[in-house]
Each structure stands twice: as structure tokens, then as C-alpha cells.
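Appendix B. Extra example for self-study. Work through it before the problem class; the solution is given directly after the inputs so you can check yourself.
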Amino acid sequence: MDVIVLGGGLMGTASAYFLARRGARVTLVERHRVGTGATVASFGNIRRTGRHLSQLPLAHRSRERWAEAEALLGRDVEFRATGHIRLIFDEGSLADMRAYAEAARPWGFDLEELGPSDIRARFPGLGPEAIAASFSPRDGSANPRLVAPAFADAARRLGVNIVEEARVDRIGFTGSGFRVESSKGVFAAECLLNTAGAWGARVAALFGETVPIEARGPQMGVTEPLPHRISPVVGIWTRSKAYGAYLRQVERGNVVFGGAAERVPVDLDPGHAVADPARLPEQLRAVVRLVPALAQVAVIRTWSGCEGYVRDMLPVMGRSATTPGLFHAFGFCGHGFQLGPGVGDAMAELIVTGRCETPLDDFRIDRPSLAA
Ligand SMILES: Cc1cc2nc3c(=O)[nH]c(=O)nc-3n(C[C@H](O)[C@H](O)[C@H](O)COP(=O)(O)OP(=O)(O)OC[C@H]3O[C@@H](n4cnc5c(N)ncnc54)[C@H](O)[C@@H]3O)c2cc1C
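Solution. C-alpha cells for the complete assembly:
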């Protein structure tokens, strides 16, 4: 089986890798360099807490692939299962957390509830005013700069043709397959996988499929390096967007943070998301509530990235509803980093075997919530 994968972010590179492992002949076409879209901008959170319940089976599958990543890819992509803590500062948010924990349990996801003394003992310095927290010990983070190039290199070693900096001029369906005309040559295959990220709806539209998607940029920042004190990824349960920050400390000591600010609007052409410095103070106020010691540190860089947000905040994954041999995996709504390896594994299974053991039905392109 021949497959063209269009778009070389985490979804495209992971899919190319797992397709090749299943024996497919794969060409991945990326118009820039692999991993330089939303993927490189990611905060790097490998988080299942708070995820839409129907995403949990895919998130579990992905968590297993993350655990194997170093062995599969022959490289450390800095996956660390440091745990993921979400602090709680008010009774309403505590009720929300408990309701989520209850609902997630039948989906195979167990959240620990921590009281104030557990937080102080296990995670000193985090949220001194917190009344409780949830803790997911097997979640954590990885390095968003490393993972897509690592999947691409591993895919290359399995024979995948990775074509970068290729301007794609035309994508056509011939009745029995696909033809992609690019500045780096013409490619033909019986299957096409659309992993074009925030631009994925444009590719779908070529085949008569409309997806309501908006390009937005979450805003990130990073501090100067500090002594390493914060081991888990830290977030919050809150009903107020103004407090919704999250952070993690990388092994070199810098603290990466995001959230608590509206996502910046992004024009898909050229698709460069630029952080807005005016939003930094509100982010920092929320960050300092999580870790007061960060009040005195310097922020050395801010950035954003172009991500596709689908109207119902779920990705589009699975078969095309119009064109045999066409598959989609795009529009990950700010949650795709954790899902990436699982998406690649699941899409490869679906394309090569015609079925997927992980339920993807809620993500199909013709679901009612996406109808005009
Ligand atoms: C700032 C930020 C922080 C985030 N933090 C997290 C987080 O902590 N945890 C989490 O789970 N998720 C997070 N996300 C979301 C996550 O990063 C994305 O969901 C994920 O990386 C999407 O991967 P992708 O491969 O679909 O898209 P991308 O990485 O954007 O890749 C799509 C690729 O397709 C290429 N392309 C587009 N059109 C064409 C074409 N016509 N021809 C050829 N190539 C094309 C693009 O150039 C691009 O390289 C974050 C996102 C952002 C922006």
C-alpha cells in the first residue's frame, strides 16, 4: 500500500512512522521543515486530566506510545512521567474536579485527590492557598522541539520518503488514487492522509468536506533558569479563564508557562502566530498564584503557534466522508501534543487494516456537531 502523508507536524511524522512499521510505502510532504508548525510551539504537556471523555481511549493509547518513545525512536525526546497536578482554590472547582474524576473512572482514568497537607508535603512551594488538588502520577511532559524530527528520522530509517520545503501546487483524486504536485516533484498513492494541522480544513475542502475551524495561538512564555524545584506539570481547576495558567520546570531549570490569556487570532496566510506582550501581566498573575516564588523571576522569551480549533473542540480523525482512500487527522484544538503518538498509531492501524481498535467515531468529519 502507498500512502502520501500531507503535513509533517507531530501527527504527520508519527503517522508516517507507524504506517511504515505496518509495511506501507510512505511519502510525507511538508511545505516547511518537519515539526515547525503548532508542534514546536507546544507547551509539551502530556496530560489526560480534564480531557473530553471520548478522547480518553486515544489518550491512553498515546500514553503507552510515549512510554516507549525512546526505544521506538532511538532517541530521548525528554518524555518524563513526572505527574500532573492541578491545584484547586475554591469549592466550585473542587466539585468540578470530583465530578470529572467520577466520570473518567469508567474510561480507565484514575485521578488522586490531594488535600492541603498532601500538597505541602509532596510538592512544597506549590499553591500555598490551595484547598485541594488532583494528581495524575503517570502523566508528564516531553520536549516539543525534539519529537517530530525524531519521528521523521525514525520513519526515514524505515524507508519513508520525507520531502521538506515542498510547495504543494495541486492535490487531485484520479478515481483510484491521489496525485500531489509539488515543487519537489509529483507523488502518487492510493491513500492520502491529511495531517495539515490548522490548514487541514483547506485540504478537506478540496474534497467537498467543510469543517468549521478557527486558527488561534495560545500564548507561552519561559523564565530564566532557576534551581530545579518543581517536578510535576502544574495546572489548575478553575471556572475563571483569568486564573487558568499552567507551568512546568524543564530539567535545565527554566519554567515554561501558558494559559490565563485569550488565544491570539492568527491569519492562516502565512500562519505565523505572534505572542502579544500586553497579555503577559495577566498570565504572570495567574502563574504566581500557582507558585508564589516565581514573582521575582525574569521572563526571557514569549511565543505562540498556529493551532486549529474546531467548533466543537474535538479533532477531525478518520475516513473522509466523500472520497475513498482519503483520511484526516487535523484540528487538535490545543490538545494534540499528548495525543500525537497515539494518533499516528491509530491512523496507521485504520489505513492499513481498515479498522481501528480505538474508538474514533466521535471525531468523524461528518459528525452532526460540524454540520452547517
Ligand atoms: C502554543 C501551543 C501550545 C500547546 N500546548 C499543548 C500542550 O501542552 N499539550 C497538548 O497536548 N497540546 C498542546 N498544543 C497543541 C499541539 O501542539 C497540537 O495539537 C499539535 O502539535 C498539532 O500537530 P499537527 O501535526 O496536527 O499540526 P502542526 O504541527 O501544525 O503540523 C501541520 C503541518 O502541516 C503543514 N502543512 C499545512 N498545509 C500544508 C500543505 N498544503 N502542504 C504541505 N504541508 C502543509 C504545516 O506546515 C505544518 O508543519 C499546543 C499548541 C500550541 C500552538
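Self-check: The mean pLDDT is 97. If your reasoning did not lead you there, revisit section 3.
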